[in-house]
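Record filed below.
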Amino acid sequence: MVNSSTIMLIDSLKEKISLTRICEILGISRGTYYYHKNNLMNNELTDLESEIQQTCIKTKFLYGYRKIHALLSRNIKCSVSKVQRIMSKYGWGCRIKRKRSHRPGNPYKQFDNLINRNWSSSLPLRKLTTDITYIPVGSRFIYLSTILDAYNSEIVAFEISEHADTKLATDTLNKLDNIEGAILHSDQGSTYTSFDYFELSRKKGVIRSMSRKGTPADNAIIESFHSSLKSEMIYTRDKPNGLSDMITCISNYIKFWNEERILTKLGNQSPVEYRKSVA
């Protein structure tokens, strides 16, 4: 069904992706797009509806009504229930579908689960979590290794490689200094149970913690970030043209996540905004 929210989505992407390609992906013709644009988008909106519409477009339809309300409340007064009704009326809700993945490992050295799903931290760089995820590029994959600070969900280190190996993980950890005494949590994959990763962690003075085998929920906060990256990046990037462009897209998304993407648990601030506000 082509409705007003579909037309707005197309309009928000037209500067980055050709209209022809967008219509192909959605399975509609250019003529259908123009017909519904002329007939569905001519309804006059109230001032509040217009503000909500522009905020949804600006944020690429990544947020639900609570976060849209939080952004609007910085400048205008309105109830969260009214924002919800308007967004529901026009189909302006969040369009993200999340995926999960799990990779078994062959352990060399295992550690107890010290975190035990308690991610609260009063200081930066005291509780860290790391993982590697895959990103499709055409018919192959590249791999993104990240380290997330549980204090504010900021990505404090990342590396990208064509190989999901121990070197990718150690290169990521080597980007961090002054983390002695921090708890570093991971799954039990062979990358994190390898001798090389064990030695590097020991030299940096970090305390190791691992999820229980076959329990990705023990590392949910970084799993959630990787899911957000995969599902949201299509709305915030130009269409990648090969490996180098995809690497740029991933880097840009991580910058967006750290500096712009608001999180409810941080009082609707971005990770960097939160860190600076309590410094």
